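Quick check before the chapter quiz. The format below is the same one you will see on the exam, so make sure you can read both the input and the output lines.
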Amino acid sequence: MSSHRLLLLLVAFTALLALTTAAEYNVVDYGARPDGGTDSAGAFLAAWGAACNDTGRSGSRPVLRVPAGRFLLSQAYFKGPCRSAGVVVAIDNNGTVFAPPALDSKAWIMFHHADGLAIRGGTLDGQGQEYWACKKVGNCTGQGPRTLDISQSKGVSVKQLTLLNSKVFHMAIFDCTGVTVQGIQIIAPANSPNTDGIHVSHSRHVSILNTTIGTGDDCVSLGPGTSNVLIRDIECGPGHGISIGSLGWQDGEEGVRNVTVDRAVLTGTTNGLRIKTWAMPNSGSVTNVSFSRITMNRVANPILVDQNYCPRKVDCPGNVQLGGADQQHIIHGHRGHIGDARCSEVQLQQHQPLQRDQAHEH
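Here is the expected output.
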């Protein structure tokens, strides 16, 4: 082969590589500082804007790069729709994005209309300690934000991410389709209030896989309008277990259907598997739920079905129908508290029985 033809091939290969290599937008290049003291919100949003509008390279999604270091982020609203096929938010394994101790908002980091979003690696630290303290004494002046809020998005994946010490929910998924959460870790103290790990509502086709969650509230909670959910290979504890509900707060509220929980280990949780509906008139339903290969250790209430959830203790009977619940190969280690032989508790409204329940406990 002549040197001229070889040169042409090298040029063509280089051009092809440039077309298929993802463009990167490093937040440091937009002014972010990994010094733990400078607010980098403006730089993060500028990098997102550039990545979101990138359409120059086919076959790959642009990357928003967060390198090693500690980045203070006051608040960020990453909004689509994007011109690109999606954005990969890649946080270095030694990179931490942390919130200010005080923040009065519903959410800290928000992704909205972010189809094709992928979040990889790193740590999001909600720094909730100050907010938890004020909640305990009842003198909070504002609401605590969720750490990661993903809404109205399709084809989303969150992998190898660590979430720490959220002020309230660590991750909320709302009105999304096709979400995969895999290999993440969520950590907060057992006494931290309302710090649910992952809350899913009004969403479809959601998978939560190979995940470890220990918080002060539900490890995973499924709210109204949620369907086709797979929870597999999850470790839960401390916390309040895996929960469907609460449902039925508003009349006409959508139910929950097609939920599979498989190969879960719950340790030291208040509850194990819980279905909870408000004791209020409602025509919703919970259908086609499967719990299988579940191991529980030191769980106070391993199985709890409560159709009479009514914190104010006012007589308000519920109408949410429960049907098609299948429980197989559920292993309880040290059932309940010491001196409490109760394994499961079911509180049903007499006019709304649990239908087609199949329980196989070992």
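If your answer matched, good. The chain has one domain: 24-361.
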